[in-house]
Amino acid sequence: MAARIKLKQLPGLYVISRLEAGDGIPAWADGPGFVSITRTDDELSVVCLQDRVPDSVRQDGEWVAIKLQGPFAFDETGIVLSVIRPLSENGLGIFVVSTFDGDHLLVKAADQEAARRLLGEAGHTLL
Fold it and tell me: Residue 95: what are its φ and ψ, rounded to 5°?
């Protein structure tokens, strides 16, 4: 049986931005709301509230963030899959960020009503 997760939509619109791998972490990245900063050999990605990111930065905006109410143990399996499966199977684009204590799912603002419906139908609770 798939996990049943409590979910909480965070206020505001979010953006996923891309900088060059060697760029420093910009001052605008830090602030209120959910923030995720990830560096790889290929890029520096910043997820934060949309109104903080300068227009000159490469970005994809108009996302809403949904927090999976954890914490979840590292050996607890199927948590993220139970949430992304109903969305993916119905053609909704997703972006997932995991932290030490939990996970955040981002869906396009235009898809949020469909996402809420599909997550509810899958047995999840939106707080």
Answer: -140, 125
Report the distance separating Cα 65 and Cα 83, nearest Å: 13
Q: Is the pTM for the entire model greater than 0.70?
A: yes
Q: How far is CA 11 from the centre of its chain?
A: 12
The dihedrals phi and psi of 111, each to the nearest 5 degrees, come to -100, 0
The residue type found at 6 is K
Phi and psi for 84 in degrees, rounded to 5?
-80, -25
DSSP 8-state class, residue 91: T
Q: Is the Cα torsion angle 67, 68, 73, 79 positive or negative in sign?
A: negative
Whole-number Å distance between alpha carbons of 83 and 39: 25
Mean pLDDT of each 10-residue bin along the chain, 127 residues long: 84 98 96 96 98 97 94 78 94 94 94 97 92
- Residue 116: phi and psi, rounded to 5, are -60, -45
Sole residue written with tokens 């119905």: 90
CB–CB of 94/47 below 8 Å? no
